[in-house]
Amino acid sequence: MPMRRLTSLFLLAATLALTVPAVAQVRAPDGAPNPTASSVNEEMLFKQDPKIHGRISIPNATAANLIQPQGREWREFRESWMPWIGALAVLGMIVALGLFYFTRGRIRLEHSEESGKKILRFNSFERFSHWMTATCFIVLSLSGLNYIFGKRLLMPLIGPEAFATLAQYGKYAHIYLAWPFMLGVLFMLVLWIKDNIPGKIDWIWLKQGGGLLGDAHPSAGRFNAGQKMVFWMVVGFGFAMGATGIMMIFPFAATDINGMQIMQVIHSLIGVVFIAGILAHIYIGSLGMEGAYDAMGSGEVDLAWAKVHHDLWVKEQQAKTASGPQLGRGQVPAE
Amino acid sequence: MARMKFLCDADRCIECNACVTACKNEHEVPWGINRRRVITLNDGKPGERSVSMACMHCTDAPCAAVCPVNCFYTTADAVVLHSKDLCIGCGYCFYACPFGAPQYPRVGNFGSRGKMDKCTYCSGGPEVDLSVAEYEKYGSNRLAEGKLPLCAEMCSTKSLLAGDGEMIAQIYKERVIKRGYGSGAWGWKTAYRETIAI
Amino acid sequence: MKAFLIAVVAAVVLATGASFLLAENQRFAYQAFATSGARVSDPGTNLVGPRWTGDIKEPGKAGHKAEAGS
């Protein structure tokens, strides 16, 4: 019995000897216990997670983040990179189109015996969908660019008060016109997807420079490879802009702050590329090619133009109607 | 001029939320908007700490940099303020802020989201000091009256310190040396790119 | 031209519709981030005014404090 007690005492002493120095280390100079030894600290928490998150008593769960420094990277992107990327994309495209115009010039209508006859290219609903999307796009792109360039270009010109009022209306327009824009993209997707499936013919069209870079007129169906690219750009970018935009319109519905930062980056990057792409589309549909605008203007194009640019489509249309597709000015189909 | 800062001594904060209440009452802040809030880290575990957080009035403030209408400005006391007349409620300052300080009267980011509201360091806005218009938009202007922010003034444990950065850092340093420990100045590295070296 | 004009009108109508629909789903901060536990008056009568714009109908009520301090 005493032997056993002695052993346990010895063990206790050994344990104490081992633990006491460790306890002493977490004591303050005056010997008081140091509560910080086991407490959380900023450095340690940042090593565990890129943001410091805790518990909060107010019913706003998003307020429970104490520090989330990721906004710095987002700021770096928005203030240091985005103005340059945006300017490069938009001005770069304008310069490229200018150069193209002065070297290649306007692509003229080639007259033939069929000049003057008209063929219906886009019916009224197709034109409606196009123009609804287009008008929304113009307002959206201007109000969108205002978020980046407004304070740099417009604000010094008109003063902060007038600019803030303009930006406020721009914000309303941006958020509300987004909905008809998304609807328009959806309409165009349904209307034109069947004519926009890429095929072998598009490869040939691209290899021949699409008639843009040479005098060749590679054959094309209803839409040539260039137009198909515009179509898929509008659909793809349109959906991407819609999805990222909705996530910013409804904060915290799907993502947290970091998610919204990424959404804003995607939204703005795609936005400026989208604007550049549509500038090229506007150019070739109006100034760049004689006769092209009629397709979306009146809906009817010159048969001679159609035969040159969309030969396979004209053949198809002529095969469909036994009387031929030629319609006089007075015989416009129901609109 | 002083370089105004906040410092929350987390080893003293007892999560009483008096700073939050004081702020709400002083400025008649609407429900649901919290210019200041208390966050508890490691809640219920050993080493739990609470930190009172509001706008830190950052050096080179990210909110001011990203604002698309440049509605932010920094006062001579290095307090970051904004103009509710210019604010368009876009939410960019909220994306950029490391401390979640900007608040909006409405949740959805559509047209009528309202003007951003945040801690003013009890120093109002761009309106004339102590005017009615200033009070209605930003709350009271204690700094113009020669007083410090109420949250820190009435902190029961003097955990939350407000005032000139060097002065409050000195107070904190003395405390840490005396008691032998301190978990640091929360958020200082992010807001001012400096910590208190002891 | 007709299709274009109809498209512009439709865009404006749809945008207006969207604004009303979105406004229906808009929530105030006092609904989302506050409990009803300690309310003693109607929300929105303090600081930012009933319309949350900063325009308060009775400036005297909110302003007395500021005047007293000046």
Automatic annotation (TrEMBL), chain B:
The keyword Iron-sulfur appears for this protein: yes
Signal peptide, first to last residue: none
Pfam families (alphabetical): Fer4_6
Residue ranges of every copy of the 4Fe-4S ferredoxin-type domain listed in the record: 4-34, 78-107
Gene3D superfamilies attached to this UniProt entry: 3.30.70.20
Domain of life: Bacteria
GO molecular function list: 4 iron, 4 sulfur cluster binding; metal ion binding
Keyword entries, A-Z: 4Fe-4S, Iron, Iron-sulfur, Metal-binding
InterPro entries: 4Fe4S_Fe-S-bd (IPR017896), 4Fe4S_Fe_S_CS (IPR017900), ET_IronSulfur_Cluster-Binding (IPR050954)
Name under which the protein is recorded: Formate dehydrogenase
UniProtKB/TrEMBL annotation, chain C:
Extent of Basic and acidic residues compositional bias: 54-70
Region entry Disordered, spans: 44-70
UniProt signal peptide: 1-23
Domain of life: Bacteria
Annotated keywords: Signal
Name of the protein in question: Uncharacterized protein
UniProt organism field: Methylobacterium nonmethylotrophicum
Phylogenetic placement of the source organism: Bacteria, Pseudomonadati, Pseudomonadota, Alphaproteobacteria, Hyphomicrobiales
